[in-house]
Amino acid sequence: MRIFSKTLSNPRRLLFCLCAGLLLSWFTLKGTGLHANLDLLCQLHRILSTEADLLSQHSNSTGTNSHLSHLKDVKLPRILYTKSDVFNPQRTDVLTVTPWLAPIVWHGTFNRHILNTQFHQIDVRVGLTVFAIKKYTRFLNTFIESAEKFFMVGHKVNYYVFTDRVNEIPNFTFAKGRRLVVLEVPAYERWQDVTMRRMEMIRDFSIKRFVKEVDYLACVDVDMVFLDEVGVEILSNVFGALHPGFFEKSRNEFTYERRPQSSAYIPVELGDFYFAGGYFGGVIEEVIKLTNYCHNAMMADKQQNIEALWQDESYLNRYFLSHKPTKILSPEYIWNNYYGSPAVVKTKRFLGIDKIYDEVRF
Ligand code: 5GW
Ligand code: MN
User: Fold this and answer.
1) How far is the centre of ligand 1, averaged over its atoms, from the C-alpha of 360 (Å)?
2) Tens digit of pLDDT for each residue in 145-187?
3) Where in the sequence numbering do the catalytic residues fall?
């Protein structure tokens, strides 16, 4: 410590130390590749801000607005529930964990009360993004009103509505800690571009805004209604949802992009699940990584005049093949009555609304 303060008081030594430090970090970073660099910088940023917080708390014990304030104020809530039984798993009819140990969230596999307690302890903030471009503003009423009943009840929620028709957004009343943010964005001419450009816009607003406002993002389709609870059980580092049309199907039946020229290409001998394009999320950093990959892959394909079979859904599936989700939502979370009511689907939490295609397509 004394050497340190001496160094600081001597301008020449200080300069020398700075240069040496820079050189050292340059050599360290050089060998690690770009991704490792970014990870390293992110970690460094986290460590530094944590340290700064601890320090400021130490010197000012009344500080209440630090995101670490919960650390000094530990409560011991008592939660009553029936104990798990190792010999009686709640579900034996469906896969509830992947080979990389990600849970697959089905009705009956979790206790909402325990999870709510955990997420209240970190005072979680969740962002829900939807796009209502052109005629799709008509879906907003049902979407938001049902979300107020069933989405993350009791938690902090920001609805982020991307639209080109700002004056068509109705007024809503929200429960405490919840609000709606309207984000004006351009409407692309082709419907394929309307759905695909969601990746770019989610990426840009995540960097610009969401990272400062929420801990997790869920990015979903708007032509949907919540019919049952969708809560903090969905939250994880990075998550996707099983497409209701494919969870019973084999690899070769998945409608992945099969042309090797496309950057969304997945050969028939690969693939874990078929994920729905209308439901993904995670912590902001992971959403930025995912949307940035998908957007860049789409742009690369566009350069070669190729567009994957199911647009953004195809690129999302390609991403998840190499960056496995840390949690997977069962099709309860993105059901569509087109697929009937199979016995394993005990509840339809989030249901697609039948569209009269002539009314909404262009
Ligand atoms: C319009 C016509 C064809 C395809 C997409 C659109 C469209 C989609 C649109 O005009 N406006 C719009 O906001 N979207 C957004 O993209 C909505 O959030 C929508 O939920 C999402 C995906 O498009 P969907 O819901 O029509 O796709 P599917 O596969 O659920 O039918
Ligand atoms: Mn949809």
Assistant:
1) 8
2) 999 999 999 999 999 999 999 999 999 999 999 999 999 999 9
3) 313
